[in-house]
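Why do we bother with holo predictions? Because pocket geometry can differ from the apo form. Keep that in mind while you read this record for 3-methyl-2-oxobutanoic acid.
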Amino acid sequence: MPDMRQPIFYDTTLRDGSQALRRPWNHEEKALIFNRLVALGIKAIEVGFPAASEMDFKSCCSLAKKAPMDVIVSVLARAVPDDVVKAVEAVKEANHPRLNIFLMMNSLGVQHVLKKTMEEVTQMAVSSVELAKKLLPPRGEIEFSVEHFGDCQDNLPEVLDALEKIVNAGATIINLPNTVERTRPSEFVKLVCAVKERLGNRVQLSVHCHNDLGMATATTVESFFAGASQLEVTVNGLGERCGNTNLFEVAVALYNAGISIPLKMNQFYYTACFVADMAHIEIAEKAPLMGSDCFVHRSGVHQDGANKTKSLFKQQYIAYPPELIGRMDGEKFVFTNQSGKLALQLLCKQNGVTLTVEQLAMLMPKAKQLAAEQGELSALDLKPLLDEVVNF
Ligand code: KIV
Ligand code: ZN
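The structure, written out:
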């Protein structure tokens, strides 16, 4: 049976993404990105951490007031009374206010960072959720994030007991972060399943993965199939260290798996470029989906397969059509010493010449020799060799 659930994309670019920038965004910049996310169709946006700075507090207040009716505005708070009070103050005017209260529960953090017992940590979490419930307007909701959940393999039974109490206190969304990606996707998914088994449908399950080993997309996608419905992501995977789960990668992976994506996917490329400019972080040429090399074929074998399947629904050497994500540059066949006849003929055509089979065979070794010496050839690079063959 196909999975008919739609994922809820919860975007934390303005919080986890911004906090990891060399210069975190100011309010005007956040407002521009917020509008872009709304235009994309994102319905849950974490706009900041009000206790982090006065600027963040004011920005959260303003975005909460301006957000469209159908968008959840979430703000982050540590599980301490001052943070909760400040966060409620910042978000309370939103149509859909949410507090995301977080606290670490892995043994290492509980023992060496918080220097508390698990009972004390559970009590901190429960009291914070109770306080938030008391202060938030009735339309508000509470998400609880188990920081370092991916590292909770050794104390999982205690964490599950704590979560039960946190849900009883009023949290309706339980977020499971892989705060540092030490745990591989299948192991993380087992942990997600354990929470699902314990809490059932009483809560909405969410995952929030970081990308230290480059597997955040895989972990997030597989967690969706294990029952997580909210997926916490950022644009271009911005975030602490190697970043958070990349929104676009997850959406396209789920789309390819037959899941309906409630976003304007044809605005992905534009949004990626927009946020890359705002962050002053260039998109790498090999970056999945958005890199300049995504649809460039260099080897002769790939060029042949790509060409023979270019009019089919499913193509041999691209995982999705470029237009799906709003890329109009499409597939490219370029010429290096690894390339084949097709790419060479294309380069000749760019010079206004169509060669015969014999002429092409004569040109090929010369072109490969030149490409071996200087790398990928442009139409201009090829011109002197082409003149030789045509005038032979
Ligand atoms: O990575 C993390 O654990 C977080 C939490 C604060 C949600 O960002
Ligand atoms: Zn995070």
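The two ends are 64 Å apart (CA to CA).
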